[in-house]
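It would be a great kindness if you could assist me with a short task in structural biology. The matter concerns a single protein, recorded as an amino acid sequence and a row of backbone structure tokens. Kindly check, if you would, that the fold set down in the tokens agrees with what the sequence suggests. Thank you for your consideration; the sequence and its tokens are set out here:
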Amino acid sequence: MLWRAADEVGQFIGVVDGVCGGLTARNRLELMSAEARAATVYWDGVARVLPCEFGFRNRVTRGAQDLFNMALNYGYGILYAQVWSAVSLAGLDPYAGFLHVDRPGRPSLVLDLIEEFRQQTVDRVLVRLSNRRQLGLEHGDGGDGGQGTGELSKHQRETIAAAVIDRLAEPVTYGGKKMPFKNVIARQARAVARVLREGGGTYTPFHIRW
């Protein structure tokens, strides 16, 4: 079943490759629609590999009450700060994005670039913690967090933060060399800047297998 979900997500690559031309409003809509449909399949697959007591069914951002969604939101916050720093250091405007629609006060470029790193630096880490029963589900952590409370306990926040930060410091292969994940994020931001400065060329997103 999981292999079927992976294959289905992979099929959306063809959908994205089929979008031709500049980044018009129509093309942006097609790309975001494909992303949303792929995400539905992806999160269904994640739900299948989590312990059933987590009760995870789908992705919830604001107002999440279940532990795994709250953990994702917290982990993404840490990654968000790392990507924002990389974008700023590359001399880019965090608010001038490509796919995410520009809105006053919305860091669209940060939201674009973060998509390359969510599943490797946060999703994968939290799935591992969950299956090792290290997230402190309900009364297991002895803190004030748990299912249905709407917030994580201090212990849970510390556990998530430590795991995500460790992952950001973990060496991965990039351009034939080993370097910390956070350095990869910085280099990808600089790659965006280089393409914009040169007024041409192709930006290649970063990806590795789960």
Observations:
- The mean pLDDT is 86.
- Helices lie at 2-17, 25-49, 67-89, 108-114, 118-131, 154-169, 181-198.
- The chain is about 55% helix and 5% strand.
